[in-house]
Structure formats: structure tokens, C-alpha cells
Amino acid sequence: MEFSPGDVVVLKSGSDPMTVETVDENGVWCVWANGKKIESQGFNPVVLEKYSVSFG
After folding, report:
1. This model's pTM is above 0.70
2. Residue 22 located in a structural domain
3. In the prediction, which pLDDT does 1 show?
């Protein structure tokens, strides 16, 4: 799956939503809020999926 900056993603194993910041040869770099602290980390794209909200 391809990811682009601004995409909202989650870990396939479950996580809070994260925003893709950059994508490069080293992985997909994401940012998210952890309380009042902003966290960031790179992930292998195989562990991510795009986040979708379902209503009802």
C-alpha cells in the first residue's frame, strides 16, 4: 500500500490514529499526540493501514 504525507494511518495490530509526515526509503514517518506530548516514529509500511471511520 502506498502512503502519502497527510494520510491518517493505524498499526494493523491496533493503535491510535497517526498522521503520515514523510515517506522515504527508510519507511513511513508518523506523528501523533500522546496526551499533550507529540510523538513521532518511523514504521515499515507493511505494519500500517489507512485509517477509516465507519458510522453506524
Report:
1. yes
2. yes
3. 76
Residue 2 lies in a domain: no
For the segment 10-54, what is each residue's pLDDT rounded down to a tens digit? 999 999 999 999 999 999 999 999 999 999 999 999 999 999 887
Q: Which domain holds residue 41?
A: 8-50
Which residues sit opposite 43 in a β-bridge? Answer: 28
20 C-beta neighbours (distance < 10 Å), count: 20
Question: Which is nearest to 47 in space by CA: 6, 16, 1?
Answer: 1
How many domains, the chain?
A: 1
What the block records as the C-alpha cell of 14 is: 491496533
Query: In terms of Cα–Cα distance, which of 10, 7, 32 is closest to 22?
Result: 7
